[in-house]
């Protein structure tokens, strides 16, 4: 059953293979792992030739995520041959010095190391363009340079603008692109797309303002708002799991589900991002986006098609079915925390207030637990518990669907009652899916134990998953917006998160720190769920 690389002489199966073979530029023979589960997989599409313009190219995000993701796409022949990148930054660099810096970052951050020649070819595609975002002349020069590149490299006016700068620069850059006409998609003159990194606004009003500014220049179909959680392999699989299988969907509702828990635990602290985090806190940093996105994917109705808008329509409906929290809801259904000093992985670590660039009296939350309800036909009465925190005992993101107890306890005389069924989707690490059920212990008596069936990606497919950024960047290049958040979706998510953070403004100062680093958060988080007669799952 195993399939290996096609023997020499086998005709190429795709236009890309044909093109690479003819041009003599094939960098790798496509390798198919000796694993029957990978049999018959579709070959990937390759994007149109284009120029990518990366703003904030000298920043941390670009170095750690964007360039390594692009290098992986390059290495695996998923970038078009006619592809160029213009890196825009304020610092003065010549092309060679900038490329050398990116080369060093690739060494450090690439998932799979590039061979020297591959890295050289990739870096040769990168040009540096110095300019301040307020400087009209810099953008005029950029416009001329892009036209020139089209002529030299045959990129047909296709342009992908990627905003990886400080969020305060987003409106400025969008305005400049509009002023230079770089947003215009002239008929037959190539496509124009813009990627905007998170955070998209810091509350409902600022998100709306930003959407308006972007909307003055770009059409919604040209805009790709990134939430990297949507690019994670397990998150994408959630849709396949729900809608590609017949047996789970009939159970996926209030009749069978008792409650849902979504946990995003991180063992790291705020690292070097103290000043950013002081302004953000856990709610804005990960709950408004990553956690609410996971919630929508768990709770949404099956879309009629897999088109980006069909999918996003369903996600928006979920967000709109969550009642906007009142001040009283926020006080009752939300628990926040901040870590103090403690131990993580047997190492002593500082408390949040002692971190670099953090106010020693900071009231910023590094942990949030919340209980949401979705007022629709499917989920009415089923609580969704979300929790996210830094400096928890381990890194683990998981979605747990807790099913109801059996209606009648037939085995109540057994030494141990079987626990209700549970389905846990491990987003990371050890990506996989676990199903818990009761089973008879072999023997003459009637002892019952809870057992698990566990599927892990690593062992089933024996391939590494791509990084979320690889998936998302490739999708933008291909013009597929399914995994990007739409304007109304971002606003709907902010309409839930904003009242929570605003309810704290005139609340008494919290008694922070209220959990020790290396523990599962404050007592209030336990109390929040125990009040409903439930417990957080031990991960
Ligand atoms: C980012 C947050 O969006 O997600 C970080 O700003 C957080 O604070 C990170 O650490 C977590 O991402 P991942 O992919 O490591 O779970």
Give a written overview of the molecule.
By secondary structure, this protein is an alpha/beta fold. It folds into two domains: 41-197, NAD(P)-binding Rossmann-like Domain (Rossmann fold, 3-Layer(aba) Sandwich); 230-466 and 487-530, Dihydrodipicolinate Reductase, domain 2, CATH 3.30.360.10. It is 35% helix and 18% strand. It has 15 helices and 18 strands. It has helices spanning 15-23, 60-75, 95-109, 116-123, 136-153, 170-179, 204-217, 233-243, 274-299, 308-320, 327-333, 457-461, 468-478, 487-503, 523-530, and strands spanning 50-55, 83-89, 126-130, 159-163, 192-196, 223-225, 257-265, 334-337, 339-340, 342-344, 347-349, 367-372, 384-389, 396-403, 422-428, 432-440, 448-456, 515-516. The strands form four sheets. The protein has an eight-stranded mixed sheet, with helices on both faces. Strands 3-2-1-4-5-6 form a six-stranded parallel sheet. A hairpin with a 2-residue loop joins β10 (342-344) and β11. α9 (274-299) packs across α14 (487-503) and α10 (308-320) runs parallel beside α14. The protein is globular and about 80 Å long. The chain starts with 14 loop residues before the first helix and ends in a 9-residue tail after the last helix. Bound molecules: 6-O-phosphono-beta-D-glucopyranose. 6-O-phosphono-beta-D-glucopyranose binds at residues 266, 285-286, 397.
Blueprint of the fold:
Elements: H1 15-23, E1 50-55, H2 60-75, E2 83-89, H3 95-109, H4 116-123, E3 126-130, H5 136-153, E4 159-163, H6 170-179, E5 192-196, H7 204-217, E6 223-225, H8 233-243, E7 257-265, H9 274-299, H10 308-320, H11 327-333, E8 334-337, E9 339-340, E10 342-344, E11 347-349, E12 367-372, E13 384-389, E14 396-403, E15 422-428, E16 432-440, E17 448-456, H12 457-461, H13 468-478, H14 487-503, E18 515-516, H15 523-530
Parallel strand pairs: 1-2, 1-4, 2-3, 4-5, 5-6, 7-13, 9-18
Antiparallel strand pairs: 7-14, 8-12, 10-11, 12-13, 14-15, 15-16, 16-17
Helix pairs in contact: 2-3, 2-13, 6-7, 7-14, 9-10, 9-14, 10-14
The protein binds 6-O-phosphono-beta-D-glucopyranose.
């Amino acid at each position: 059953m195993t399939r290996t690389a096609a023997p020499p002489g086998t005709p190429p199966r795709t236009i890309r293979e044909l093109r690479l073979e003819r041009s003599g530029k094939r960098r790798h023979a496509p390798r198919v792992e000796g694993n029957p589960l990978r049999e018959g997989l579709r070959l990937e599409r390759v994007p149109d030739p284009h120029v990518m313009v990366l703003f904030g190219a000298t920043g941390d995000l670009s170095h750690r995520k964007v360039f390594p993701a692009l290098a992986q796409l390059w290495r695996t022949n998923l970038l078009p041959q006619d592809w160029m990148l213009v890196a825009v930054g304020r610092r003065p660099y010549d092309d060679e010095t900038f490329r050398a810096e990116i080369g060093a970052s690739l060494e450090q951050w690439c998932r799979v190391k590039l061979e020297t020649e591959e890295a050289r070819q990739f870096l040769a595609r990168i040009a540096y363009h110095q300019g301040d975002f307020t400087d009209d002349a810099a953008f005029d020069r950029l416009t001329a340079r892009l036209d020139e590149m089209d002529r030299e490299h045959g990129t047909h006016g296709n342009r992908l603008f990627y905003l990886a700068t400080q969020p305060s620069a987003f409106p400025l850059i969008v305005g400049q692109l509009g002023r230079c006409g770089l947003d215009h998609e002239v008929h037959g003159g190539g496509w124009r797309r813009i990627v905007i990194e998170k955070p998209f606004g810091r509350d409902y009003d600022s998100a709306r303002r930003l959407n308006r500014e972007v909307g003055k220049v770009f059409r919604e179909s040209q805009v790709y708002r990134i939430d990297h959680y949507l690019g994670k392999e397990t998150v994408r699989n959630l849709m396949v799991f729900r809608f590609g299988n017949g047996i789970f969907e009939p159970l996926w509702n209030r009749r069978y589900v008792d409650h849902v828990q979504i946990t995003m635990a991180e063992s790291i602290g705020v690292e070097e991002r103290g000043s950013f985090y002081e302004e953000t806190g856990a709610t804005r940093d990960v709950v408004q986006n990553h956690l609410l996105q996971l919630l929508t994917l768990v709770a949404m109705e099956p879309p009629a098609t897999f088109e980006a808008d069909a999918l996003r329509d369903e996600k928006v409906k979920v967000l709109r079915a969550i009642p906007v929290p009142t001040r009283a809801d926020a006080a009752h259904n939300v628990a926040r925390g901040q870590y103090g000093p403690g131990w993580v992985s047997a190492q002593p670590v500082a408390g949040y207030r002692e971190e670099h660039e953090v106010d020693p009296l900071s009231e910023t939350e590094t942990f949030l637990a919340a209980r949401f309800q979705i007022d629709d036909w499917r989920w009415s009465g089923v609580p969704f518990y979300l929790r996210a925190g830094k400096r928890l005992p381990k890194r683990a993101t998981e979605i747990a669907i807790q099913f109801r107890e059996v209606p009648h306890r037939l085995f109540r005389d057994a030494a141990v009652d079987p626990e209700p069924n549970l389905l846990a989707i491990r987003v990371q690490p050890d990506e996989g899916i676990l199903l818990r059920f009761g089973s008879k212990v072999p023997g003459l008596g009637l002892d019952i134990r809870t057992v698990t069936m566990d599927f892990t990606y690593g062992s089933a497919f024996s391939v590494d998953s791509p990084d979320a950024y690889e998936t998302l960047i490739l999708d933008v290049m291909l013009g597929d917006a399914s995994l990007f958040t739409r304007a109304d979706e971002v606003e709907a998510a902010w309409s839930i998160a904003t009242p929570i953070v605003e309810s704290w403004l005139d609340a008494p100062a919290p008694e922070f720190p209220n959990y020790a680093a290396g523990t599962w958060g404050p007592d209030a988080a336990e109390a929040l769920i125990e009040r409903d007669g439930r417990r957080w799952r031990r991960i």
